[in-house]
């Protein structure tokens, strides 16, 4: 019979890799806390409607990539595994009344997400996101603050060669006129567009700007730019954001091709791109403002802005940047033993050390003394102690410092390091 394998597009994170994951979790939490973001946790699955209304019916995420669940029994709603976190958090702050607390509300999260996409380097069907969301702050300084946080996290992780691309996709006041201009432009090229983009032309022409096909991409190069069609409010929002970023020394380029794949965005959108990953999927962070989403999902008129980073992609970028995270959990003491009585005594010394809050190991697999010493070296024990008949008789043994080779006589049942 064939062995059962993990589902396509999922991953096992083995202990050696978990170290770097924990490091990323620690760094993202520490930097987020400095900006006042508190952690929030929420369900892995939600009502399907949440994503249809929140993320948008015309998006690839909702149309093609959702894992939906049919539950047994009648009268139950249909659910979907979360493809992202923003809609879930908006649902949660409305449901739990956080919208009525003092603003801004600043929340951060570390979640697994599910999207039925074609797996490739940097693209999984179950993947992990670290993200933040800030509610109730309309000022472009909120955008600058969120961008500065993302920039600081990427720097603190030691990722090199990252560029920040920002854009504004306007608001419900200025977007219809821009949509018309785009539609007019792309209609003139309709026959050259790919099938997907021909569909997008009707439903959401903005998404054509995001198409990776070389022909669509070349056509999109000549398309009208959002930044030339912004209303006064959106244009001044963008100007102040740029000033604030300049003041902070955060380097960016204004990139009219950044439009994002989710429907809820208004005004500022951005991506941090890291080409050194070498993969087609080089966006390590994406986000933007979504001033209409809380209201759309039944809450008060409350603005929002945030981002999410793909943790897999961050780790890949860290590795390509030469970042190494050492395993610092090495045993303080390894007690090697010869014979059954010595083995039992070694076991109790290890227990005594652990009771004192220190990491100690003794042999559990019946290795020879020579093999035990080799193993102690392999797991990086700082000190070793050898127990044989002689040591049991006298109650004393030689404690060896593995780094210096220095030996000290100690009382087996009472010594501590
Ligand atoms: P997103 O651009 O769909 O935005 O995803 C954010 C990040 O998650 C991407 O930049 C990428 O690093 C990672 N990611 C997305 N899909 C995959 C995948 N299949 N495999 C591996 N990594 C992936 C959002 O999800 C928004 N909720 C971000 C946001 C928060 N906007 C405002 N607030």
Structural notes for this entry:
β12 (333-337), α12 (340-355) and β13 (360-362) form a beta-alpha-beta unit. By secondary structure, the protein is of the alpha+beta class. The mean pLDDT is 95. It is built from 14 helices and 16 strands. It has helices spanning 15-34, 48-54, 60-64, 86-95, 140-156, 175-187, 195-203, 214-221, 232-248, 293-296, 311-320, 340-355, 369-378, 389-394, and strands at 38-39, 45-47, 68-69, 79-81, 105-114, 126-135, 163-168, 253-254, 266-273, 283-289, 304-310, 333-337, 360-362, 383-387, 396-401, 407-411. The chain is elongated and about 95 Å long. It starts with 14 loop residues before the first helix and ends in a 6-residue tail after the last strand. It has two domains: 15-174 and 230-320, BirA Bifunctional Protein, domain 2 (2-Layer Sandwich), CATH 3.30.930; 333-411, Anticodon-binding domain (Rossmann fold, 3-Layer(aba) Sandwich), CATH 3.40.50.800. α1 packs antiparallel against α5 and α5 runs parallel beside α9. The strands form three sheets. An eight-stranded mixed β-sheet has the order 1-5-6-11-10-9-7-8. The protein is 36% helix and 20% strand. Histidyl-adenosine monophosphate binds at residues 84-86, 115, 117, 122-124, 127, 129, 131, 133, 261-262, 283-288, 306-310, 312-313.
């Amino acid at each position: 019979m064939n062995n059962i394998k993990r589902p396509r597009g999922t991953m096992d994170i083995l202990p050696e890799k978990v170290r770097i994951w924990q490091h990323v979790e620690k760094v993202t939490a520490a930097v987020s806390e400095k900006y006042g973001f508190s952690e929030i946790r929420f369900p892995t699955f939600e009502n399907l409607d949440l994503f249809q209304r929140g993320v948008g019916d015309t998006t690839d995420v909702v149309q093609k990539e959702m894992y939906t669940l049919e539950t047994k029994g009648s009268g139950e709603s249909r659910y979907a595994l979360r493809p992202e976190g923003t809609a879930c958090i908006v649902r949660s702050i409305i449901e739990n009344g956080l919208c009525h607390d003092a603003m801004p509300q600043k929340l951060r999260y570390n979640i697994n997400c599910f999207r039925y996409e074609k797996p490739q380097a940097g693209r999984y069907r179950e993947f992990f996101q670290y993200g933040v969301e800030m509610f109730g702050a309309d000022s472009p300084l909120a955008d600058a603050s969120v961008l500065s946080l993302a920039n600081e996290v990427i720097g603190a992780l030691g990722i090199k060669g990252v560029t920040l691309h920002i854009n504004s996709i306007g608001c419900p006041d200025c977007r219809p006129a821009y949509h018309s201009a785009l539609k007019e432009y792309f209609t003139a090229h309709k026959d050259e567009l790919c099938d997907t983009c021909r569909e997008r032309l009707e439903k959401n022409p903005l998404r054509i700007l995001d198409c990776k096909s070389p022909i669509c991409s070349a056509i999109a190069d000549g398309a009208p730019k959002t930044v030339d069609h912004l209303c006064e409010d959106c244009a001044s929002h963008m100007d102040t954001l740029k000033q604030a970023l300049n003041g902070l020394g955060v380097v960016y380029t204004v990139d009219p091709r950044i439009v994002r794949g989710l429907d809820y965005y208004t005004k500022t959108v951005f991506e941090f791109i890291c080409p050194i990953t070498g993969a087609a999927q080089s966006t390590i962070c994406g986000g933007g403002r979504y001033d209409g989403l809380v209201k759309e999902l039944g809450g008060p008129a409350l603005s929002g802005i945030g981002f999410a980073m793909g943790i897999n992609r961050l780790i890949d970028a860290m590795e390509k940047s030469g970042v190494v995270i050492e395993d610092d959990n090495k045993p303080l003491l390894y007690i090697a033993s010869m014979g059954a009585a010595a083995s039992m005594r070694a076991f109790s010394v290890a227990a005594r050390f652990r009771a004192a809050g220190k990491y100690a190991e003794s042999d559990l697999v019946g290795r020879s003394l020579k093999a035990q010493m080799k193993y102690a070296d392999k797991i990086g024990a700082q000190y070793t102690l050898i127990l044989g008949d002689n040591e049991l008789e006298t109650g004393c043994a030689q404690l060896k410092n593995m780094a210096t080779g220095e030996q000290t006589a100690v009382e087996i049942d009472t010594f501590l390091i």
